[in-house]
Write a structure and sequence with these properties.
Length: 290
């Protein structure tokens, strides 16, 4: 995950690499034991002119020829009746295709709001695009985030629901590594947190979403792998939140009601505060009551 460095700051503080926050989270979790304490083709309608018709014919033969042509043209321009259409559809060798299902884009164009499932799929696609794009020199991160934010509160709600849903983590095999060779599902969720952190400086709603995800309880019935992944994500969320808003991070941490979880996340708070530029005295002042 991304944590920006400020090597020019003379204030002594912890140094973090890009994956420092999540990495430390996993080391803390590895020594913490179990997680059981966590709770929770239509016919043409226009008439066609008779081919070759250019005035009144002067001979009976020409008149007869043009009359025949006019009859043929009229037949071509007459819409097929329902009975005729039904007969054509039932005739051998005729394939009747069912109507195509409307695409999500077509539904939006027709004025229909996307469903939550469609929004969640859009969020997953955006997260993957964001993850790969950040290593592309031609990727415009700011423009990408602006376009994503145009989805409004519904877009952030879908992102929150995606990260709250532990299904993708529950499907991971036991012993999955969160340090090396991370599975695609883990990388995708990490990228969603990256997006939230990048949106939060300008969007208070993104910051609120980070707090809501941090406060979300961990279901004790989940597998150890899923619980480890969720706690690692909370570690990263708190670490990043402390860099954005020190007091909000401290207040959010204080509201955690699980002592075991608070013990695991305390280092994330201290490291995030230090990374934000706070002096050691400031960190002590902010956390004295915790």
């Amino acid at each position: 995950m991304n944590a920006r460095h400020d090597n020019q700051n003379a204030t002594p503080r912890l140094r973090w690499s890009r994956w420092g926050g999540p990495g430390l989270a996993i080391l803390v979790l590895a020594g913490a034991g179990s997680y059981a304490l966590f709770t929770r083709s239509a016919p043409t309608s226009g008439e066609l002119p008779a081919a070759g018709e250019s005035g009144t014919p002067s001979t009976p033969g020409a008149r007869a020829t043009n009359a025949a042509r006019g009859t043929a043209a009229g037949a071509r321009s007459t819409p097929a009746s329902p009975a005729t259409s039904a007969a054509s559809a039932s005739s051998p060798g005729t394939t009747v295709l069912p109507p195509a299902a409307p695409s999500p884009t077509a539904e939006v164009a027709a004025g229909q709001e996307p469903t939550m499932a469609q929004r969640r799929e859009e969020v997953r696609q955006a997260a993957n695009k964001f993850r790969h794009g950040r290593f592309n020199a031609f990727f415009r991160e700011e423009k990408f985030l602006e376009e994503f934010a145009q989805g409004g509160p519904a877009q952030l709600a879908a992102l929150k629901e995606e990260l709250t849903d532990p299904t993708s983590l529950s499907e991971l095999p036991a012993g999955t590594s969160f340090m090396h060779g991370k599975p695609e599902a883990v990388l995708e969720r990490m990228s969603m947190i990256d997006m939230l952190h990048s949106l939060a400086p300008k969007d208070p709603s993104a910051r609120d979403t980070m707090v809501a995800l941090l406060m979300e309880p961990v279901d004790s019935s989940l597998s150890d792998t899923a619980k480890k992944g969720l706690v690692g994500e909370k570690f990263d969320l708190l670490f990043r939140l402390a860099q954005l808003d020190r007091q909000l991070a401290v207040d959010s941490y204080a509201q955690l009601d699980n002592p075991k979880l608070k013990s695991l996340l305390r280092e994330a708070l201290l490291a995030g505060l230090s990374e934000s530029g706070a002096s050691m005295d400031e960190v002590k002042r902010l956390t004295r009551h915790l």
